[in-house]
């Protein structure tokens, strides 16, 4: 059995966990959109810029002649991004047609409808329009408006964190197990610290695409952050989506830094370091928005179902 140093093992384990994280990163948001029947919480600009970044990453991987697993993962990213974008466009189109065919009660009511007859769910809250649609969905599915006693929001939020923590631990376990199997089967091999520069022109072109993807990844989250701030809400977003993203970026950067901190090696991998570690600050900012707007989302939901 091959002997591995501690930093090589940590690099391999971190890279494997990162791979597992990226394999599942979009699944929580796909499930969130499917369960709610809406994609209003997701910024299409965010997904579009991220998609272009993954395209740049894909072509860079091909140009650089990276190992087949890296290229295959880049292809998977592009396909998964496209699926999520198509899902969001579909739900936006369907819900727009429903709103056109079934206008709000306040608009459909006649002139003799008393003004006091309006419900708070018809009026909604500024920046919290999705709260009323969620309330109507709950009414239609149960036949009656749920009460606060039947919707313990704080308890649900605590359960959400427990489920997300379990999901993160499961992904980490999958990553560790995957690396251990690959190492014992001799599929995983340590790479030289300085990397193989190969053809200078090929390396330069791949580096340009790497920096382009890094810039796109850094800019992709800005539309989502702005959307959350304007609406004062993170409703419709999957927290686990961004947790997986943070975990994937953290472990990917760790896999590079654990392998080597030599100047030449860091320069070669600088675009990917910027793209992974640089976006972590933006993910943390989105976590702060989840925490700040959580109670406002609950308040809007509570008002809508009174």
TrEMBL record:
Domain of life, source organism: Eukaryota
The entry's keywords: Membrane, Transmembrane, Transmembrane helix
Keyword Ribosomal protein: no
Ranges that cross the membrane: 12-31, 43-64, 70-91, 166-183, 203-219, 239-258, 270-288
Record's bilayer topology term: Multi-pass membrane protein
Region (Disordered): 102-146
Intracellular or extracellular location(s): Membrane
Name of the protein this chain belongs to: PQ-loop-domain-containing protein
Origin organism lineage: Eukaryota, Fungi, Dikarya, Ascomycota, Pezizomycotina
